[in-house]
Every structure is written in structure tokens, then in C-alpha cells.
Predict the structure.
Amino acid sequence: MDFRTRIKELCQGQGITQKELAEKMGISDISLNKTLRGEYPQLQTLEKIANTLNVPIAELFEKPNASNVIGFVKVGNTVHEVKSAEDVKNLAGKL
């Protein structure tokens, strides 16, 4: 599942809009939209979204018990391929 779709689902599940998510994060909705439309999100931004939604960062990529996640995350200037929620956890542990 695409992380953008998953973030929308999480917001809907919590009864908030993406604009309200941005406000809770302390950023503009334009900044959040740019992040979500970007090719490779920054890991720090994903962590902030996860913390604001009160979910583990891996849940931004998959529903619990889902599998076969494929995507990319940018840490610094390096783009990492993400094949599983465990990959995201490992990248978060390197910060």
C-alpha cells in the first residue's frame, strides 16, 4: 500500500483532515501536501506524522499484519528501498 493512501486512511480513521494533521504537526497544510506529493519523503517527516497520529512509523506503510510493502524513503541524501515494515524500523533505528 502506498504510504500516502495509508496516511489518508489513518486520518479518516481518527476523524481528522490532512489540514488538521498539518496543524497538529505545527506545519502548513501546503508543506504537508508537498511532502505527501514528493517522490521520496524524509524519514524525520514520516516519524513526525506517525507521532502525531500516535501510530508506529511502520503503520504509515501498512495496516497491521499486512505484508509485501515496497517503497522508498530518503534519509539525508540517501534513498533507501523499503521492502517491509521492518526495513522502516531499521532505518529509524539508525537516526
